[in-house]
Design brief:
The complex is a heterodimer.
Chain A: H1 2-16, H2 18-55, E1 60-65, H3 81-90, E2 98-109, E3 112-121, H4 125-128, E4 133-136, H5 141-145, E5 150-153, H6 155-162, E6 171-174, E7 177-185, E8 190-191, E9 194-195, E10 200-203, H7 204-211, E11 218-222, H8 229-243, E12 249-253, H9 254-297, H10 299-307, H11 312-348, H12 359-384, H13 388-393
Parallel strand pairs in A: 3-10, 5-7
Antiparallel strand pairs in A: 1-11, 1-12, 2-3, 2-6, 2-11, 4-7, 5-10, 6-7, 8-9
Chain B: E1 5-16, E2 19-31, E3 36-40, H1 47-54, E4 62-67, E5 70-71, H2 77-87, E6 88-91, H3 103-112, H4 118-131, H5 147-159, E7 165-169, H6 177-194, E8 197-201, H7 205-210, E9 213-218, E10 221-225
Parallel strand pairs in B: 3-8, 3-9, 6-7, 7-8
Antiparallel strand pairs in B: 1-2, 1-4, 4-5, 9-10
Helix pairs in contact in B: 3-4, 3-5, 4-5, 5-6
Chain lengths: 395, 226
């Protein structure tokens, strides 16, 4: 009964000062909304990266020269085409190792041109990666064996160079050398900052001649199942270690890439949310302040209530409820604003894929209630401990 | 039967800017049930301090104070609040009604702290308002009532918990003579018909003269108790 009365009195007090209550809540509203939005953006970014990495294909292992550690110098590749065959044989899947030798080149058709990534590859690419060809066909082994000057172009590049006309069979200039277009990729979007739709794939042997290089940059393998990823990784590294005893190679999996990026994005999200939480704290100080004003305004009421029998905790509870109501109502409004803002942001900007998780509003609500208790307790205790004689005498 | 209020040789001193001010210098007063007493004295005489002590709002520096038979020295602040709730009804010069609250809920308020449920609180509040002739103004807020009506509501609030003593601090101080007379008549009626003791604190000698007993305070000491 006493609790119900304290509740009623607190609600009445808040409603009697609508504007003041709203302004006080505003700090909490903004703080909570900021936390929700920033966590949503961080979560969305992480999910986007995961989608992109997983969109490359499943159970991938990428083999590159050198050590993949922060601070390691870029290592000149010693990998050769023959190494891909050796790894393929060791794994019992010959011809299933994709190779890559990439370089930026200018690609022309007529008066149109684009500077883009030219990737020398082999027919294993569609086996390893998700890279569907929309029209025409992908590179064949004979194209690689005979160093044929043929090219498969990305959907975006095809649009840029051919402007809607059919690219199949046309001749394009890649780094000054003519290549015949034999295929167009399906649109796949970008991955980890690379626009995959503007790539050109040419036979790796043709690329070696074009770039004046006898090596390849990297291999990519696909494990038959998730459980075998580690075996594939080890086998690939073992083959290379045997052949190049003095060299370092790295074989990274998608999980490793995601783990690293996830940690970075997670840290970033935490830092952003913590900065937003500072405004929540400032909002809490505002609540504390206005509660002190409320206590002062109602000093005589407190005196009266104590005179007629209210205990210290009856008065404390009444003001604590008022403070917690301020912050939790503010918290709920802030969550609504934050969720709405997140949805609006991701609708308005494609680059900001905000994803609202269930836990961030729950956490925001809990924190706002805690802020109310934390910042309400000092004014509430002060109210509860007022001397009734002094309080009644206050004008 | 124990006395409703009993002060034995109480003193009360305050620290004011490092100086000790002795507001009461040793006063003994007993208020029996059914008493009708006026505490009079010039301002600064210590009569407000005495009233705060008798009302259990304050504690004596030395001496013994019993409220409703309980020695306040043995009571915690919260226990003393409970004793006040059960024993004393306060009537103030400025009424001290809650502005945003109806007459009914103003009167019912002390019963919250007795732990009664809302329907029971409102039933008793309605009865108390009937007794002071305000049964037709239950839903009015203090601002919608005249001064005399507000003081009647305040008296109903003092009465609602069936106290042994009504402690009225200048109850007619904010009222005109005629309304003041009506309020005094109401207090006297409650005293004679319900047996509740009435203690008036006033410097209005005309009001004081109506009481059966006059307690005169001067310079922190009891001058006359007759």
């Amino acid at each position: 009964m006493r609790f119900a009365e304290a509740w009623r009195v607190a609600v009445t007090a808040l409603r009697a000062n609508r504007l003041r209550s709203l302004l006080t809540m505003l700090g909490v509203i903004i703080g909570v909304a900021a936390v929700v939005v920033l966590v949503a953006i961080g979560t969305g970014a992480k999910q986007e990266v995961e989608d992109q990495v997983n969109g490359l294909g499943a159970n991938l292992v990428i083999v590159v020269p050198g050590k993949l550690e922060l601070g390691s110098a870029p290592t000149k590749s010693r990998l050769e085409l023959g190494d891909a065959d050796r790894i393929g044989r060791a794994l019992g899947q010959p011809g299933q190792v994709a190779v890559s030798l990439a370089s930026g080149e200018t690609v022309r058709y007529g008066s149109r041109s684009a500077f883009t990534t030219v990737n020398g590859t082999n027919p294993a690419v569609p086996e390893v990666f998700v890279r569907p060809v929309a029209r025409g066909q992908y590179l064949r082994q004979s194209d690689v064996d005979t160093r044929r000057r043929v090219a498969v172009v990305g959907a975006g590049l095809a649009e840029t160079l051919f402007d809607g006309s059919d690219p199949l069979g046309r001749s394009i200039s890649v780094g000054g050398v003519r290549f015949r277009v034999i295929g167009v990729f399906e649109e796949v979007g970008s991955s980890l900052g690379t626009d995959r739709d503007s790539e050109v794939h040419i036979p790796v042997t043709a690329a070696q001649r074009l770039f004046g290089d006898e090596r390849v940059d990297a291999f990519a393998l696909k494990a038959p199942s998730t459980d075998e990823i580690e075996d594939v990784r080890r086998t690939a590294l073992a083959v290379l270690a045997e052949r190049y005893p003095d060299e370092e190679f790295s074989a990274v999996t998608q999980d490793q890439i995601l783990g690293t990026i996830g940690r970075i994005l997670g840290l970033l999200t935490t830092v952003l949310a913590a900065i937003a939480a500072i405004s929540l704290l400032v909002g809490g100080v505002g609540v504390s302040n206005i509660m002190l004003v409320s206590v002062r305004e109602r000093t005589r009421e407190i005196g009266l209530r104590k005179a007629v029998g209210a205990r210290t905790r009856d008065i404390t509870l009444q003001f604590l409820i008022e403070a917690v109501l301020l912050t939790t109502i503010g918290g709920i409004l802030g969550i609504a604003l934050g969720v709405g803002g997140s949805l609006a942001l991701s609708a308005a900007f494609e680059q900001l894929p905000a994803v609202v998780t269930w836990w961030s509003p729950a956490l925001a609500f809990t924190v706002s209630a805690a802020v109310g208790i934390f910042f309400g307790v000092v004014p509430a205790r002060r109210a509860g401990q007022l001397d009734p004689v002094v309080a009644l005498r206050t004008e | 039967m124990t006395a409703a209020l009993e002060a034995v040789d109480v003193t009360r001193s305050y620290q004011l800017d490092g100086l000790t001010v002795e507001a009461l210098k040793g006063v003994s007063v007993t208020i029996e049930r059914g008493d009708y007493a006026a505490v009079v004295g010039p301002s600064g005489s210590g009569k407000s301090t005495l009233m705060h002590l008798l009302g259990g709002l304050d504690r004596p520096t030395t001496g013994v104070l019993r409220v409703g038979g309980r020695d306040v020295a043995d009571l915690s602040a919260d226990e003393l609040a409970e004793v006040r709730n059960a024993t004393i009804g306060f009537v103030f010069q400025a009424f001290q009604l809650l502005g945003r609250t109806s007459a009914l809920d103003n009167v019912a308020m002390p019963l919250v702290y007795r732990g009664l449920r809302r329907p029971e609180r409102r039933r008793r509040a309605r009865e108390a308002l009937d007794r002071v002739g305000m049964g037709h103004r239950l839903d009015h807020r203090p601002g919608q009532l005249s001064g005399g009506e507000q003081q009647r509501v305040a008296i109903a609030r003092a009465l609602v918990g069936d106290p042994q003593v009504l402690l009225a601090d200048e109850p007619t101080g904010n009222l005109d003579t005629r309304t003041g007379d009506e309020v005094m008549a109401l207090l006297e009626e409650l005293n004679s018909e319900q047996g509740v003791a009435v203690v008036l604190v006033t410097h209005d000698l005309e009001v004081a003269a109506r009481a059966r007993r006059s307690i005169r305070v001067r310079d922190g000491l009891l001058e006359v108790d007759a």
